[in-house]
Design brief:
Layout (H helix, E strand, L loop, with lengths): L10 E5 L7 H9 L4 E4 L8 E5 L2 E5 L12 E4 L4 E2 L1 H13 L8 E4 L3 E2 L2 H15 L2 E3 L2 E2 L9 H10 L12 H21 L9 H15 L3 E2 L1 H10 L4 E4 L25 H6 L8 E7 L2 E3 L12 H9 L12 E3 L1 E2 H11 L3 E5 L9 E9 L5 E2 L6 H5 L2 E8 L16 H14 L3 E5 L7 E3 L4
Parallel strand pairs: 1-12, 1-13, 2-5, 2-12, 5-7, 6-8, 7-11, 13-17, 16-18, 17-21
Antiparallel strand pairs: 3-4, 9-10, 14-15, 18-19, 18-20, 21-22
The structure holds guanosine-5'-diphosphate, 6-O-phosphoryl inosine monophosphate and magnesium ion (MG).
Magnesium ion binds next to loops.
Length: about 450
C-alpha cells in the first residue's frame, strides 16, 4: 500500500502574556505554510501589527493572513464584530492595494458590537474611574472602550443580542431593536450619561446598510472549516488578546471578556481541539501590560522607560503607553500549561540590547515569606506576590540585523538558553525586529 499523505498541520498562535506579544508578525509569517487563517475570539480590542517591505499594517478584526491573496481568512463565531470597524478596515486595506473578496468569510453566528455597546463600555469605565476604593485605586478595568464586554454580555443574555446573520433580516432586526433600545436607553441614563434616547429606526437602517456590504462574506464558518479540513487544507488559528487576559484563566477581573487562550478555539470556531497538534506560544523577551491589573515584574523606573522607548511600547489600538517590566517566567509557564504550548516564539529581543544586567522572574515570594513557582490567576492574590529574580548579564551590541541564533552575542544566547531551560520548551522562533525578515527560526516552526 502506498504511504498515506501526512495529515495537514493545523497550528494555533496564542499570546502568553497580557497581549501585544507580536502575534500579528508571527501569524503573517506562518500564513505562508497554511491555507486558512482564523480569528476565534475577541474583537477590535486587538491590534495586530504586520510589517513587510517597509509597509506597516495594523489589523483589528481581519486576520493577519490577509496580505496573502491566495489564503482564506475567517472571522469565526467566537469573535464579536463591530461592522463599522470591519468595513473601515476593509476599505483601508483596499486603498492600500489589498483585495478583499472570496478570501474573507465571516460567521453568521458571530455577535455584533453595536454602537451602544461602545457607549456603554466607555460610560461604565468613566463611572467606575470616579469610584475610588482604596490606595487611590478605582474600579475601572482600563478597557479599550471598543464595546467588547457589553457585546459578550449581550451574547450571554441572549434576548438582547444581535448576530451577524441578523443583519440580513431587516424585519427581525427592527423588532429586536425596538425592545433593546428602550432597555439600553434606561441603562445608559443610570450611568449618568445624558444621551438622547436610542432610535431603533436609525440603528436598523445603519445595520441593514452594513449587512448589505458584508452579505457576500457571511456564511456558516463551522461547516466551512470542517470542509476545508476534509479537503486536507491546513488551518492557522490566530488568538487575539492573550492567555493572562482570558476571562476564565487570566488575572480576573482585569481581563477581557473572551477565552483568548487556546481553550477558546473549539468553542470559538466549532473545530475540536483534538485537531490542533501544534500550539506556538508568543512571548516578548520582557513583559508589558495595558490597562489596570497586577503586574509583579513592572518597572516604574528608568528600566521601564527604556524598554517603552526602545520597544515603541504604545498600544496599537488605543495608543496608550504600555506598562513595561522584566520577563515573568512564572506567568509564561502558567500560560504555556493552560494553552498546551508545544513551542515558543521570543519576540522583541533586540529591545534588550544595551543593558548591563537583565532579570528574569522565576518565582514569587508569598506574603508568608515562602516561595512559589505557581502563578495566581486572580488580581487580588497576584498583587500580594513579590517577584524573585535570577540576574543574567546583558549585551551591548545591536542585534536587529542578526540572521542566526548562533551569531547573537554570547549573553543574548545565554538569555535564550535560560528561557528554554526554565520553561522546558523549545524556542522555535526568535524575533529581532518588526519586519518579516528580522526573524531567526531555530528549528522549522
Ligand atoms: P500583537 O497584538 O501581539 O500582534 O502585537 P502588537 O502588534 O500590538 O505589538 C507588537 C509590536 O512590536 C508591533 O509594533 C510590532 O511591529 C513590533 N514587533 C514585533 N516583533 C518585533 C521585534 O522582534 N522587535 C521589535 N523591535 N519590534 C517588534
Ligand atoms: P492584542 O490582540 C493588549 C486589555 C485592555 C484592558 C483589558 C480589557 O493586540 O494583543 P477590553 O477592551 O478587552 O474589555 O479590555 O484587556 N486588552 C489588551 N491588551 N493587547 C490586546 O490585544 C488586548 N485586548 C484587550 O487593555 O486592560
Ligand atoms: Mg496588539
Amino acid at each position: 500500500m502506498p504511504p498515506s499523505p501526512a495529515p495537514p498541520r493545523h497550528t494555533a498562535i496564542v499570546g502568553l502574556q497580557w497581549g501585544d506579544e507580536g502575534k500579528g508578525k508571527i501569524v503573517d509569517l506562518l500564513t505562508a505554510d497554511h491555507d486558512v487563517v482564523v480569528r476565534y475570539n475577541g474583537g477590535a480590542n486587538a491590534g495586530h501589527t504586520v510589517v513587510t517591505g517597509g509597509e506597516k499594517y495594523a489589523l483589528h478584526l481581519i486576520p493577519s493572513g490577509i496580505l496573502y491573496p491566495e489564503k482564506v481568512c475567517v472571522i469565526a463565531n467566537g469573535v464579536v464584530v463591530d461592522p463599522e470597524t470591519l468595513i473601515h478596515e476593509m476599505n483601508t486595506l483596499h486603498q492600500r492595494g489589498i483585495e478583499i473578496g472570496d478570501n474573507l468569510r465571516i460567521s453568521s453566528r458571530a455577535h455584533v458590537v453595536m454602537p451602544y455597546h461602545k457607549v456603554h463600555d466607555a460610560a461604565l469605565e468613566t463611572f467606575l474611574s470616579k469610584t475610588v476604593v482604596e490606595n487611590g485605586k478605582d474600579l475601572s478595568i482600563g478597557t479599550t472602550r471598543r464595546g467588547i464586554g457589553p457585546a459578550y454580555a449581550d451574547k450571554v443574555h441572549r434576548s438582547t443580542a444581535i448576530r451577524i446573520g441578523d443583519l440580513l433580516e431587516p424585519d427581525l432586526l427592527h423588532r429586536k431593536l425596538r425592545v433593546i433600545c428602550a432597555i439600553r436607553t434606561a441603562e445608559l441614563s443610570a450611568l449618568n450619561l445624558d444621551t438622547p434616547p436610542l432610535d431603533p429606526d436609525e440603528l436598523t437602517d445603519d445595520l441593514i446598510a452594513h449587512g448589505q456590504r458584508l452579505a457576500p462574506f457571511i456564511t456558516d464558518t463551522t461547516y466551512l472549516l470542517h470542509d476545508f479540513m476534509a479537503e486536507g487544507r491546513s488551518i492557522l488559528f490566530e488568538g487575539a488578546n492573550a492567555c493572562l487576559l482570558d476571562i476564565d484563566h487570566g488575572t480576573y477581573p482585569y481581563v477581557t471578556s473572551s477565552n483568548c487562550s487556546s481553550l477558546g478555539i473549539p468553542a470559538g470556531t466549532g473545530v475540536p481541539g483534538v485537531h490542533i497538534k501544534r500550539v506556538l506560544g508568543i512571548m516578548k523577551a520582557y513583559t508589558t501590560r495595558v490597562g489596570a491589573g497586577p503586574f509583579p515584574t513592572e518597572q516604574e523606573n528608568e528600566i521601564g522607560h527604556r524598554i517603552r522607548k526602545r520597544g515603541h511600547e504604545y498600544g496599537t489600538t488605543t495608543g496608550r503607553p504600555r506598562r513595561c517590566g522584566w520577563l515573568d517566567l512564572v506567568a509564561v509557564r502558567y500560560s504555556a500549561m493552560i494553552c498546551g504550548v508545544t513551542g515558543l516564539a521570543c519576540m522583541l529581543l533586540d529591545v534588550l540590547s544595551g543593558l548591563d544586567e537583565i532579570q528574569i522572574c522565576t518565582g514569587y515570594r508569598t506574603p508568608d515569606g515562602s516561595i512559589t513557582d505557581r502563578f495566581i490567576p486572580d488580581a487580588h492574590g497576584l498583587s500580594a506576590m513579590q517577584p524573585v529574580y535570577e540576574t543574567l548579564p546583558g549585551w551591548q551590541e545591536e542585534i536587529d540585523e542578526a540572521t542566526q541564533r548562533s551569531k547573537l552575542p554570547d549573553n543574548a544566547q545565554r538569555y535564550l538558553d535560560r528561557i528554554e531551560i526554565l520553561t522546558g520548551l523549545p524556542l522555535n522562533i526568535v524575533s529581532v525586529g518588526p519586519d518579516r525578515n528580522q526573524t531567526l527560526k531555530a528549528v522549522p516552526a
